[in-house]
Amino acid sequence: MGKLNPKQVENLIEPGTYEDGDGLRLIVKATGRKSWLLRFQLDGRRREMGLGPYPEISLKNARLEASSKHRQLIDGIDPLAARDIERAALREAQRAREAREIKFEVLAAEYSAAHGGAWSEKWRKGWMRKLELYAFKQIGKLPAEDIDTAQVLKVLQPIWTTKSRTADEVRGQIEQILDAAKARGFRTGENPARWRGHLDNLLSRSEKKKARKREHFKALRWQLVPSLMAQLRENTTPASLAAQLLILTSARAHMVRFARWDEFDFSANTWSLPNERMKMRVAFVIPLAAAVTDLVKSIPRIDGSPYLFPGQGKTGVMNANAIRNLLHSIGHTDITRHGFRSSFRDWASECTLYPREICEMALAHDERNQTEGAYSRSDFLDKRRPLMNEWAEFICKKH
Asked: Where are the beta strands (DSSP E) in the chain?
């Protein structure tokens, strides 16, 4: 029989500790707050465990709780450790319930909101539009945990051969969203939208290659690039400086427009782009030739902007058409910004002896197969550096 009774517990107001027996105690604070405490010994050490506040936990229930903990001790179980495990299980169950309430289309919108700050308005709208057209009908209302390979194939198979490039882009988007969901604890296991070692066994590889081959851009013949560079170097406008950086590094226009000062390391002569800035969402480092380092250092820094080429619009960077408009103004209406990557690639093939994989990696094209990728994780930075140096020397010297 315990030492306390319900009426006594209710009326106690004097601060102190009141024993009930078998280690159960009522603690009364100066504020009037009351709570239950259980003292016990485990492995020769005195331990204390709170059982909850009064009156939420009545005297009867406090005794039942204390009795339950004593039974655990008899069975060799640490009540504190057992409680931690129970609480962790409850948190996991709550997390699982919350995860199931968040559908794929919501995760997609949240991903866009988190990463879209570095995207153009056009790209952001197009990114969501592709999912609305091809993915949401099949998986939009599903929680991330329920999306498996079969669900992804339902999205991709109807457009894999007819709209190859779009299908591959949608696959990449699904992969990104599900990776983010896993990082947030909303799913477990492998990503069902992963290409290498997974979907490449289920979908035609030739169609994926066709998607890249269909992406044709009007390019300036490599022999004419030096004369264009000479024209651009006489122009010190931001658009011209951006165009020169674009050509010298063979980067994509989006990479140049959103280039940040903190991405450049002038001591190492590198330009490091994080995952979210790359088309394939894989971080990439570009070696900088001396001419590129000099060019970047010559660009005026604008107070309050992290960008090399700031602008007045929503994106905070120069207009998406600034380089194109400049090229048109000097008579090059027949070429595109992206085409300079082809100019570089043709020059590398015809004028150098660098291996194909080095030339492709210079364009951030990693075409190694799954086995090669598993054993070789190099980005060939040291081997790409002399290639990019030669390209800069070729296009910057007077011909």
From this structure: 16-21, 24-28, 34-42, 45-54, 264-265, 270-273, 284-287
Among 398, 399, 391, which Cα is nearest to 291's? 391
Is pLDDT at 377 greater than 50 in this prediction?
no
Q: What is the DSSP letter of 256?
A: H
Q: Tell me the two tokens of residue 73.
A: 């001790």
Residue-wise pLDDT for 19-45, tens only, equals 988 889 999 999 999 999 999 988 878
Q: List pLDDT tens digits, range 190-239.
A: 999 999 889 988 998 765 555 554 444 577 899 999 999 999 999 999 99
Q: DSSP class of residue 287? A: E
CATH classification (class only), 6-99: alpha beta
Residues in Cβ contact with 341 at an 8 Å cutoff, skipping those fewer than 6 apart:
217, 219, 250, 252, 363
Say if residue 101 is exposed, middle or buried (CB neighbours under 10 Å; 0-12, 13-18, 19+). exposed
User: What do you get for the CA distance between the two ends of the chain, in Å?
Assistant: 104
Tokens of 297: 């250092």
Choose the most confident range, by mean pLDDT, from 21-25, 279-283, 331-335.
Answer: 21-25
C-alpha span between 368 and 281 (Å, rounded) = 17
Q: How many CB atoms lie within 10 A of CB 186?
A: 20
The Cα 290–Cα 393 span in angstroms is: 9
Mean residue pLDDT across the chain: 86
- pLDDT of residue 385 exceeding 60, the answer is yes
Quote the Cα angle for 271-393-212, to 5°. Answer: 60
CA-based nearest residue to 365, from 252, 254, 253, 256: 252
Same fold for the domain at 104-213 and the one at 222-396?
Answer: no
Domain boundaries, the chain: 6-99, 104-213, 222-396
Cα 244 from Cα 252, distance rounded (Å) = 12
pLDDT tens-digit readout, 79-132: 888 888 888 877 776 776 675 678 899 999 999 988 887 676 777 888 999 999
- According to CATH, what is the number of the domain 104-213? 1.10.150.130
- The domain made up of 222-396 is a member of CATH 1.10.443: yes
